[in-house]
Amino acid sequence: MKIVEVGLGERSYPIIVKTGLLDEIGTELQERKLAKRYIVIADDKVATIYFERLCNSLAGKGIKFELLTFPSGEESKNLATIADLSSSLAQYGVDRKDCLIALGGGVTGDITGFAAAIYMRGISFVQIPTTLLAQVDSSVGGKTGVDLPEGKNLVGSFYQPKAVFIDNSVLATLPSGELLNGLAEVIKYGVIYDRNFFELLANKQQQILHLDERSIEEVIVRCCSIKAAVVAADEKESNLRRILNYGHTLGHAVEAASNFSIPHGMAVAMGMVAANKIAVAKSLLSLHEAERIKNIIAGFGLPVAIPSELDRSLMKSYLKTDKKALAGKPFFVLPTCIGQVTITDDVTEELIDAAFN
Ligand code: ADP
Ligand code: ZN
Asked: What is the pTM for the complete model shown?
């Protein structure tokens, strides 16, 4: 068992990583005495695969719980789901002494965290992330929220869980595309923060792709430690936390221009390669290091080129309206070497065009 502490003063919490942890949640919750009753929230697919194990673990310790489900998929990440869940919580008589459990991927974590943030002006919640993306990224840092028809993640709140429980063995049932999605964020951490971690990824590529227990556990722990350090230094993304957007400024434009048919991780992979081109053109990054990053991205089976059929002018218009752009000027996180980045909004149209092609 490895524990990563997210240091946020009174709102600090542990991330516990262990193979098989799902079967020990009852013990963990009993020791932590977080609530008198727990409400498990899961999408229907994850509930079918994993609720029984969680149920046995909770029941084994005499813990009271209920289950609420919603249909799996990003389409559920909206205010209607929040309204439905909140009504169900009220019907079950849930109050501030109870605690929500998010069992699932990033969608479940975002929905559950947001419901916890606003139901009765805030009740506790814990996370059991079941996708690699959620385990290394979305379950750490306290971003919660839902999409609007006008855009993704437009309504939400920073709201920290009481604990995060990560069982890497649940990745065995994850569709391979979902694993790749998470791997893009994993590579991101190496490039923005930790050269040694990047080298580990390069050396252990095969073990990681085959979900070798020790390798994947180490990857998760290292990613969570990096994200925890970044978030602890800048919880609300005013400064350092922006480095986590490496590959995302251009990646979001790719996602949006594809009408979200290109999954997040794939788009981020393309976005990282495009950002590196800008960094090389601005003489910030050596061509050699850019090639190494591109090779590792490709080596994990992620795409490195933006599909030629995507409309370039549409992508550029999304860049300007990006939620994080300031006065229509997007910022770019650009590597200066593997393990270090700089942030700039000083990127010309021509450089952007070249990066997209
Ligand atoms: P993300 O974590 O990428 O934001 P979701 O929460 O939408 O995404 O999860 C992606 C898909 O994978 C959903 O259909 C979800 O039901 C499914 N899923 C999540 N975790 C697992 C798992 N461990 N095994 C199998 N399917 C899973
Ligand atoms: Zn991301």
From this structure: 0.95
Give percent above pLDDT 70 in the chain.
Answer: 100
State whether the beta carbon of 133 lies less than 6 angstroms from ligand 1.
yes
* Ligand 1: residue whose CA is nearest its atom 19: 105
Task: Inform me whether the pLDDT recorded for 151 exceeds 90.
Answer: no
Q: State which of 173, 196, 231 marks the end of a domain.
A: 173
Which residue has its alpha carbon closest to ligand 1 atom 27?
174
End-to-end Cα, the chain, rounded Å: 45
Catalytic annotation, pick one of 24, 66, 74, 237: 237
8 Å CB contact between 25 and 165: yes
Residues 187 and 100 in one domain: no
Catalytic residue at 248? yes
- Residues 6 or more apart whose CB falls under 8 angstroms from that of 290 comprise 276, 277, 279, 280, 335
Ligand 1 atom closest to the CA of 44, numbered from 1: 16
Ligand nearest to the backbone CA of 51: 1
Q: Give the burial string for 132-171 (b: 16+ CB within 10 Å, else e).
A: bbbbbbbbbbbbbbbbeeeebeebbebbbbbbbbbbbbbb
210 with 305, same domain: the answer is: yes
Q: Which domain holds residue 346?
A: 176-356
Where does a domain end: 143, 173, 203? 173
- DSSP for 318-339? HHHH-TT-BTTB--EEEEEETT
Which tops the pLDDT comparison, 150 or 89? Answer: 89
Residues with Cβ < 8 Å from 263, sequence gap 6 or more?
177, 180, 181
263 three-state secondary structure? coil
Is 143 tagged catalytic? yes
Same domain, residue pair 160 and 17: yes
Half-sphere exposure of 32 (CA within 13 A, CB side): 21
